[in-house]
Amino acid sequence: MDAKNIVEHTENCMPENNGELKRTLSNRHIQLIAIGGAIGTGLFMGSGKIISLSGSSVILVYSIIGFFLFFIMRAMGEMLLSNLNFKSFADIVAHYLGSRAGFILSWSYWLSWSVAVIADVVVVAGFFQFWYPDTPAWMPAFFTMFLLLGLNTLAVKIFGEVEFWFALIKIIAIVLLIVTSIFLIGISYTSPNGVVASFSNIVEKNTIFPHGFSGFFAGFQIAIFSFAGTELIGTAAAETKNPEKNLPKAINTIPFRILIFYILSLICIISIISWANVPANKSPFVELFLYAGFPAAAGIINFVVLTSATSSANSGVYSGCRMLFGLAARNKAPKLLGKLSSSGVPVISLLFSGICMLVGLTLLFIIPDVMKVFIMISTVSAILVIFTWSMILLSYISYRKKSPDLHTSSFFKMPGGVTMASITLLFLVFVLGLLSLESDTRTALFIMPLWFIFLFFIYKKDKDRIVI
Length: 468
Hints:
Amino acid/polyamine transporter I, plasmid, transmembrane helix, transmembrane
């Protein structure tokens, strides 16, 4: 490393004098963080549950959610680029919907990531049990949690490198699955259980809606959780070089990523295994290679999806502690949570989040069934994600009313404007209503309002102290 690079590296790792996070992530970092956030445990593990409920209509479930998600991200992107002083979408919500809304969103988003990290780490334990089935789930779960907390104490540029390689492994895994599937379909491979690999397995009788519309609608909960993290682009905006160029590029590639990483991979899985043979409590990515008669390859893919879950958890730890840092910077959380380490990491926020996540992991001592814990926790996360996306859309509608000049001068306008934002908001309300149809999701839906009521009264109590 020459003298110039040493100086640049040192400057990038140090916090600015005013205690703000630096823009040290490059384009390749933000692109891969965007992919890493969008491809996670919900796809690699949860898609098996959705397929068992929705059959091949799972493809439609992911397509519908992905369609509306693109507009949510475009709305967020337009607002972020309208004022580069916004460090995240939480700042946008506080600015356009008021201090109380920003307070509730920020703490709720922190909780959503804390809960999502717990779900991801729980699934890591499940993947580990593929090799060592007698190992108690809590052991690999707690080991992974401590490892991630250690990684996140390092400089943000190192986090970017770690997430870059984690996300790259995900991409390789999905490409490998697609190539293998196309080969098996091309030779009409017959699996040991008698299923002939063919695209016709997607449209055969009683495949599209095997459990009727109730099964189709039930798939939306886990699918929403699968996309949780896409808005991480907004949180990373505070630490991104050249956001005017990199953020639009990351957001505009969302449809392509959904088509390749979600739709095409699910088509391949159903074509090879057939929806009826996809187990609800296991990863269909691993099962594909087992059913194809490649147990060694299944072990490799299991390792890959294990690193994928770890990557998603890593993104969650990063995002959660940055949200707490932003809260402290706006006097909506104890000032101690805004303390930066010598490498520019909000270390106290990281430790606080880590302790809360470790407490949540104790569920594995009470309920040793990995999938049951995953469904329970992912439902809470899905509710919080729907709330987050809804607040972004409401902020966009307010932004169009309060700052028409900024919209006029924007070079990254949201397609469809307020009309599309309103339609997307109605869709999110519809999905929220779907959670009341199933008993395992209904409980979380009825309990979560207590969280928002709690935040409302906490803010009201401290409103004289809290300053935007």
